[in-house]
Design goal:
Layout lengths: L5 H5 L15 E15 L6 E4 L8 H13 L4 E5 L20 E3 L5 E3 L2 H11 L3 E7 L37 H19 L1 H5 L2 E4 L12 H18 L5 E6 L7 H11 L14 E7 L3 E3 L2 E3 L2 H16 L8 E8 L17 H21 L2 E7 L17 E2 L2 E2 L1 H10 L4 E7 L5 H7 L6 E9 L2 E9 L9 E8 L6 E10 L6 H7 L8 H10 L3 E2 L4 E5 L4 E7 L4 E7 L2
Length: 559
């Protein structure tokens, strides 16, 4: 599945071409009730992550970290694997290291926080906080240390990455002491209040190859790790289990049972602390009839199933949930024709539709959704638009990053939305978006500002007619008069460096002038200059065409 060629990955979206679709727009009506609040619009979008921690300290990685931090300074989080992996800090695909723990000849611990501090410092200096993943197993502590370092490529078998870092520790007491010393160091370096604002979670996807131990051994790993964190900082925010596949079969259920009623291996007491809980949800794209077909239903089913398990535990129903990885597919560092969506607006429109509906899935089960980690960052020393799942390529932002820029501009109360082209949450969960497109909106009001995110999404990457959207706002509390409308857009010609790059001939060595043009094209772009619109008897209407795979953000300001 993963051994696909680079050219197919880069140009997979173009291979989807079919005969021209009808150009006539079809009507869609979206109604928003400004007086009908659904509660606070929580900024669930503000979490990002990657396998490779060391990329974040390099030129383009640090640049992207700065862009993420600017979205909501000191409220954005970055989660990464390999913070305890043994090595010299040289990154590679699905690999990273910090050399935080080694042992001397007598087997005594040697702690070195230099590289991990550099990773955290890079984020904190740019407004991004650590979502600290406690993993993976240092070589000196692993029960099966040989082989340890893997050398994975997109053409390799995925299982080849599961080497010595994935095994349980030889000594759980030493493991707990490592985590204690690490947390203690962070408190001393960054201050108690700062570290209290972080997330500390144990391991990654322990129900699949990332953990080469048993379920019981994972619970023991969790207990000793959490005990180490809490001994250094009793008020630290700790959690897990970052299970793959939503509920991961019965793994999530058994883990919650352990935390609620099991015997703690580190303390001997009943139960283990759980301040937030986490799982992963992935879509499942394919390549059919010469085009990409996304699998949004797969991601929604992962989320729906995990939320149902959480809701079945009264003691955890209101515990904050972070979907530790929420993405259209399962491998950021893979390539292939089924992944040809990544550079295009199919990725951005999928992301808009998916994040908006996560709020609805949480409301369905009455659980407390804190956030969702977009497992996409950037890769150094790879070709431009190489077909990896990332937010930027060689310092050039992809269209998907502008969706997060849009969402960062939304705040206040989430408002009730009705759309005549809403595909429906349950229908999408069961069948995906395979017949008519899904065109709907996420809306919020914050004082004299009302924001509306509108998407036009379909699972199939084939041409389609634009939607002629009539947006109707009612029960506006501002009184009659003029309101300023600012309209941002992501489509083929707006907020889209990929299209510009292709127009330039797909250069792998762009000139300085071309690079500057691409940088500018990757920013969030207004559809037109701000305009004045009128509120009449608490109502306002505006119309616009929305192409297939496009996303719009409309901001109404009453000043």
């Amino acid at each position: 599945m993963f051994g696909m060629c680079l050219a197919a990955s880069v140009f997979g979206a173009e291979a989807a071409a079919t005969p021209d679709a009808p150009s006539a727009a079809f009507p869609v009506t979206i109604r928003i009730d400004a007086a009908h609040s659904l509660g606070d619009l929580h900024p669930i979008w503000r979490f990002f992550g990657a396998d490779e921690p060391n990329y974040s300290t390099m030129k383009n990685g640090a640049k992207l970290i700065g862009e993420l931090g600017a979205l909501k300074p000191k409220h954005v989080y970055f989660r990464t694997h390999n913070l305890l992996t043994t090595g010299d800090g040289t990154p590679a695909l699905k690999w990273g290291s910090t050399n935080a723990y080694t042992e001397d000849a007598a087997g005594n611990p040697v702690y070195d926080w230099t590289i991990v501090d550099h990773i955290f410092d890079t984020g904190l200096q740019r407004g991004v906080k650590p979502y600290v993943q406690i993993g993976f197993m240092p070589e000196a502590m692993s029960t099966h240390p040989v082989p340890y370092r893997h050398h994975w490529t997109p053409a390799a078998k995925y299982d080849e990455i599961y080497t010595g870092w994935a095994y349980p520790p030889k000594d759980y007491v030493k493991w707990g002491e490592l985590i204690y010393q690490w947390t203690k160091h962070c408190v001393e370096k960054y201050g108690r209040a700062e570290v209290e604002s972080w997330y500390w979670e144990v391991w990654n996807e322990p129900n699949i190859g990332y953990w080469r131990g048993t379920f019981e051994e994972y619970c023991k790993l969790y207990d000793f790790a959490v005990d180490g964190v809490r001994r250094a900082l009793p008020t630290a925010r700790v959690g897990g289990p970052e299970v793959a596949g939503g509920a991961g079969g019965d793994f999530l259920h058994k883990f919650l049972e352990h935390c609620a009623r099991g015997t703690n291996s580190a303390t001997g007491k009943i139960g283990s602390p759980l301040d937030f809980l986490s799982f992963h949800a992935k879509g499942y794209p394919g390549f059919t009839d010469s085009h990409v077909r996304m699998g949004l239903s797969n991601e929604f089913n992962d989320i729906d199933g995990a939320f149902a398990v959480v809701a079945s535990f009264p003691e955890y129903k209101r515990t904050p949930i972070v979907i530790g990885e929420a993405d259209p597919d399962g491998c950021a560092a893979c390539q292939g024709p089924q992944l040809g969506y990544r550079n295009s607006t199919l990725y951005s429109s999928y992301t808009a539709a998916a994040f908006a509906r996560m709020h609805d899935l949480a409301a369905k089960h009455g659980v407390n959704l804190e956030g969702a980690v977009t497992w996409a960052f950037t890769f150094e020393d790879v070709p431009y638009f190489a077909g990896f799942r990332q937010l930027a390529t060689n310092g050039i932002d992809l269209p998907v990053l502008s969706v997060f820029r849009m969402m960062s501009k939304m705040s206040g109360d989430r408002l009730a939305v009705e759309s005549s082209a809403d595909a429906g949450l349950e229908a999408i969960r069961k069948h995906g978006v395979r017949l008519t497109p899904d065109i709907s909106a996420l809306a919020a009001r914050d004082g004299d500002r009302l924001t509306v995110l509108v998407w036009h999404y379909h699972d199939d990457d084939v041409p389609g007619a634009p939607a002629s959207v009539e947006l109707r706002l009612r029960d506006l509390p501002w009184g009659d008069g003029a309101v300023t409308l600012t309209h941002y857009r992501i489509d083929e010609r707006h907020s889209n460096a990929f299209t510009v790059w292709k127009d330039l001939g797909s250069p792998q060595e762009p000139t300085p002038a071309q690079y500057a043009q691409l940088e500018k094209a990757g920013q969030l772009t207004p559809l037109r200059d701000p305009q004045s619109v009128t509120v009449d008897s608490g109502r306002l209407e505006t119309r616009f065409d929305l192409p297939r795979q496009a996303v719009s953000l409309l901001i109404f300001d009453r000043k």
